[in-house]
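User: I'm writing a tutorial on reading structure tokens. Could you give me a worked example: one chain, its sequence, then its tokens, then a sentence or two explaining what the tokens reveal?
Assistant: Sure. Here is the example chain.
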Amino acid sequence: MHESDLLRLNFLYNFFSFKTIRKILHISLRCLDFITILISAYTSVFVISWYLGTKVSSYATFLYSFVVLLTWAYLLELSYLPKLPRTARYRSMFLEFLVFNMFSLAILILVKFIFGIPEVSIASFILFICINQTLLFFVRIASYTFFKHYRSKGYDLHNVMVIADQFSDDIIEKLLKHKEWGYRILIIVTNSKLIRAKYWDKAKIISYNGNIKKIITCDIIDEVIYCSSLMDKDVLEELSGFCREVGVVFTLNSNFSLLDPFKLQLEAMYNPSSLAFSYIPTNYFSLLLKSLTDLVFASFVLLILLPLFFIIGVLIKLDSKGPVFFIQQRIGLRGRKFYCYKFRTMVHNAEALRNNLENMNEADGPVFKIKRDPRITRVGAFLRKTGLDEVPQFYNVLKGEMSVMGPRPPLESEIIKYEPRQLRRLSVKPGITCIWQVSPNRNNIKFENWVSMDLKYIDNWSLKLDFILFFRTIYSMINQEGH
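And here are its predicted structure tokens:
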């Protein structure tokens, strides 16, 4: 047998061995997840029934456990939670499990009311979520910590070939520094003298001569990372196709030069040879969760706070003449107009008085804001400080015009003064709260910085970020940081 054939067989043997081990680990972790979920479910039913002195039938317990397992099996199938990432933060993992637990709670409550499981109380569901969150997170942290230590000792390594240029040292440094990730740079393909001089003793350096296929075939490579700033269509097409053919992971990590600094999502269009560059969040499942959370949370808030609405309405009426609600046309997703609802915090003719106060505007850009606006009523000042004036906007969320988290909706008079870059604020649904809304001394923030905060939110959006903003908003309301 020819030497190249032996090398290819050796590569395939090592590749399939690696894939087999990863598959076994993946299945084992999923089984561990299901066992943990079952323990949480049975424990929650037992504790609540013992505390209340009631007895739950075997059928109700079985039905409850079946619904719990079915719900989580579906959620796990749609997510990366069963997999053990090489790189992750504990906080990110905790928030991911929290999101799925909250979604699971909503489904369980919905199933209870639709199909009826009278013997299992909502308290059991809530306790299940608490136990499940704790146990699943503990199991995942224990597994993740074990594998980090295991990989740092040189086991379960992922052999990487990096195609680099003089601007790729940041990626190479991270891969070398974080040994617990389990990435071993086997080969660096580059024509850069800087990269050669810097990493000659860290990996095998090979000059780029176009024959990368032979390198992948002759060496045990698990992943090819293309991080050169030069985008050669023919090279990328040939390299990615060959990696797909031999079963090697191909990762494109490039600066995209002219398209920076945006975070891009590449999506296949109707024509497989075309790529769509998306500048907005595109994770369908995460966006679906966000929409469902908006709907459930808005319904809950409006229902629970209905008595408070009545009290606030009475106080507004006693404090000054005019309607309880201030209804104003705002601009939403991609220029869609809608009527935004707020509790009235100013005198009834505030808009007519604005012309006389233009010279007192303390905000730059197209925004009009005065810290000590003379039009604000006494009750209005309190509502603004606590953020309660924004609560009626949950009705806009319920109508689908707004989201709980997102850039604040602007006025049409402001939009016409926007620069093209600033219009990207309208690429997502406007929100009740945002990064600017929870920033200290937000009214002192320059308009350009405000826009940058909104664009940062859009570029880095995740459910985790929404959770952080939610708790920061609660903190801001308690401390009355609004104006």
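What the tokens reveal: The longest strand covers residues 183-189. Confidence is low (pLDDT under 50) at residues 6-19, 255-277.
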